[in-house]
Write a structure and sequence with these properties.
Number of helices: 14
Order of helices and strands: HEEHHHHHHHHHHHHH
Number of strands: 2
Structural class: mainly alpha
Radius of gyration: 25 Å
Largest sheet: 2 strands, antiparallel
Length: about 300
């Protein structure tokens, strides 16, 4: 018995030593660039980190308390705006992408042209798109929307400072997010549509089902795993919103259009409060993790993957 166990142990050690040269470089990279920064971030969030002096003084949960209780409530506005961004943009991106994919998939000609047209915003730089939307929502007569409403149609007498108001500024950020990402969703759904058997649509057609019924009763249920994938990516993306906020509104007015990543950037590189910035980053990560677990339970992913 002991001889057999010893033989298994020796075999296991030999296998590990054989695989170690191939696994070790990847493990080193993971430790250096993932594990160590993660634990260091946790340590900084519990400390008063003075980067110039190189001092790290442990202060416990003070950074978290400061964030949650600050008088300006900038954290809570940013936290709210991330959830609002997710609630507004995610359904539009999912449903819009699904519908456009279904329509393009049923085209006889011009599929490639529509694919290119919808996907072009996805591969365009966020900075370039932000500049375009800044021009569209410009607060003066140079803005396209103001020009149309005031000078061209005469529907308003004064120019609207879209990007300086709380809700119009947030709306501009949401519209930009939808326009930029709906092409990615469309392409994912278009690929998933190729896996739906054509026999299902043929059988439904024989039963007298029209295009709408086919879409509701065949396409949408068949795309449920894909919808989960798109949903998770959009939720994660909603909590990584940064460039459009920095370029369009800068968090104005008074942080009412700010988001967590912009607040993190402001605390770290404008106020040099790296402890608070690290705490915001960890709160963001914990929120994403909890939302992912919750959505996994709601969608019952194990059942989805089995096709039940």
């Amino acid at each position: 018995m002991l001889t057999t166990r010893k033989r298994y142990l020796e075999t296991g050690v030999k296998n590990w030593l054989t695989a170690l040269p191939f696994v070790l470089p990847g493990l080193i990279l993971v430790v250096v660039f993932v594990i160590y920064p993660m634990f260091f971030t946790i340590w900084i969030s519990l400390s008063d980190y003075q980067i110039v002096q190189g001092n790290i003084n442990f202060i416990g949960l003070k950074n978290y308390i400061t964030i949650f209780t600050e008088a300006s409530s900038r954290f809570w506005y940013a936290y709210r705006n991330n959830f609002l961004y997710a609630f507004v943009t995610t359904p539009c991106i999912i449903f819009g992408g699904m519908v456009f994919a279904y329509l393009i998939n049923n085209l006889r000609k011009g599929k490639m042209l529509f694919k290119l047209g919808f996907y072009l915003p996805v591969i365009t730089s966020w900075v370039i798109v932000s500049l375009v939307f800044t021009y569209m929502f410009n607060n003066s007569n140079r803005g396209l929307i103001n020009y149309i409403l005031v000078d061209f149609l005469g529907l308003r007498k004064e120019y609207v400072p879209w990007l300086l108001r709380e809700w119009s500024g947030n709306a501009a950020i949401w519209i930009m997010g939808i326009w930029k990402n709906i092409g990615w969703s469309m392409l994912i759904y278009l690929a998933a549509l190729q896996g739906i058997p054509s026999e299902l649509y043929e059988a439904a057609g024989l039963d007298g089902a029209g295009s709408l019924k086919k879409f509701l009763h065949i396409t949408m249920p068949s795309l449920r795993p894909t919808t989960y994938y798109v949903l998770i990516n959009m939720i994660i993306g909603s909590f990584n919103v940064f460039i459009q906020v920095m370029m369009l509104t800068g968090g104005k007015p008074n942080g009412r259009t700010s988001v967590l990543q912009y607040l993190l950037y402001d605390r770290a590189f404008n106020q040099f409060a790296f402890g608070e910035a690290s705490a915001i980053g960890l709160i963001t990560a914990a929120t994403i993790l909890l939302l992912t677990v919750f959505l996994n339970r709601v969608f019952r992913l194990d059942t989805v993957e089995k096709g039940e």
